[in-house]
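cron nightly-structures :: item 1 of 1
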Amino acid sequence: MRRCVVLLSGGLDSAVTLAAARASGYEAHALSVDYGQRHARELDSAARVAAQLGAKSHRTVALDLRAIGGSALTAATAVPKDRTAEQMAAAIPPTYVPARNTILLGLALGYAETLGASDLFFGANALDYAGYPDCRPEFLRAFENLASVATKAGVEGRSRFRVHAPLMRFTKAEVVREGGRLGVDFGLTWSCYDPAPGGTPCGRCDACVLRAAGFAEAGVADPAAPGP
């Protein structure tokens, strides 16, 4: 069985990506990163999702990006709330974390090399690459080229690293439908950027709004939705 490393945040997209890797026959090793994000509640979800979907292993790496800040997720900057789809698409959002996905994929690449794996799975989708530069197909292809010259396995010709983004062309509704088909327990996942004081999803940040719209369009009830 081929091995792969799956970046697992505990969110909707990464959970469905892990399920897709497992359905494709991979022995999946899940990697989560505690980068100092204000919504660290997702790391608990990541552990539960990894267990539910049969990851071969799951580990969390701590790397505090609050040291450089620059994002509403890693600095004392307000998380946008109650924005329309048009407002979200107008510019790169304040929740963009500088170089985060380059750093996370770099960690996944190093881990893959120690495992003798050449496949990385990453949960970017259409709504992500519309707003985040490090979720675009061009970025993923460029990272593959980097991996081929930045690793011992690549230079020696033992591995041709591939970054798989099986949800890249999916809308959020399609992600929900695919997750349902693959048996993802959505109740274990977490999307909120700025949880309410009681630890429940705020229901108003971009992540909550997009998640709610995806479930509504898919005609599926979200078991993790905040109460009235």
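cron nightly-structures :: done
The chain has one domain: 3-218.
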